[in-house]
Amino acid sequence: MRIEQLTYLAAVTRHGSLRRAGEELHVSQPALSEAIRKLEQELGVRLLDRRRSGARISAAGQELLQPIVDVLEAVDRLKAAAGNQRTSRRLLRIGTVNAGTAALVLPAVRAFQAADSAAVVEVRNLQQDEIHVSLAEGTLDLGLVNLLDGDDVPPDLEATPLLTGRPAAVLPAGHPLAAGAEVTVDDLRAERFVAMRAGYLMHRFAHRLFGADLPARWHSTDGAEMGKMMVAEGIGLTVLPDYSVHGDPLERAGLIVTRPLRGDTTVVTMAALHRRQPRVPPAIVEILSHLRARART
């Protein structure tokens, strides 16, 4: 068994593709595939599920992933102790649903990098199901998601609550409904509505809110940021967690406002997810500390 074989497997797990892993490592795809096959033969387990769409870590490989990561981190520490300047930089991969998360993630990343100037951070905008899968497969280290009352977190993931809030109507500042203290469901039904596309939490909430009687004029978009811009441009109204709008540049500029939904008692929680494991990697512990500190401000 060679360290480079473990490095190859970790790269394929990260990228979900032999080709992209080879490009990162500057190793040909056949050489990469052969090295991992030899590792599988030596360990007596199939580490990758190879498909036309790409390569993903197998169930057996998933069980071995943390020990492999531990070995690679130990090698990095050994190199650092020996003064080897070629030591790999620490990589932290964060997935986010992007609804209200930027105000927490960006300051936390800045603080994380201030403490370790060699750290490399990758932030990816994904849907919640994609974050769950990527965390389970080991291609993400941390995921930020929003949860409605009663939502369950997969048993192999651990959740750290960061913010709680309520779904709120998001309106252009000059809209007639902004003059009131609350907005009713019927108010929203009578307007052009900007919904999040299927797969987003607030798409599910909008269907729960309206039931079978949806607004007649229904637009859809990917993610809260585009939704807020569409509201600011007067294209329609939307519903988002209140914490995803408070402090937003469009709100600070006086272009959009929020109003509570009359009679709705739903609670939305932003949580950070990571894989359950005996020892949480120091990078995850550190970024969680920065996220919690930012959430308290």
* Count of alpha and pi helical runs: 11
Mean pLDDT: 87
Distance between the termini: 48 Å
Q: Identify low-pLDDT runs.
A: 83-88
Strand content: 15-25%
**How many strands appear in the DSSP assignment?**
12
* Pattern of helices and strands: HHHEEHEHEHEEEHEHEHEHEEH
Structural class category = alpha/beta
Largest sheet: 5 strands, mixed
Give Rg in angstroms.
22 Å
Instruction: Write out the strand line-up for the largest beta sheet, numbering strands in chain order.
Output: 4-3-5-12-6
Fraction of residues in helices? 40-55%
So what's the oligomer here?
A: single chain
Categorize the overall geometry. Answer: elongated
Structure description:
This protein is of the alpha/beta class. The chain is built from 11 helices and 12 strands. The strands form 4 sheets. It has a 5-stranded mixed sheet with strand order 4-3-5-12-6, sandwiched between helices. Strand 1 and strand 2 (54-57) form a beta hairpin. The longest helix has 23 residues, at 59-81.
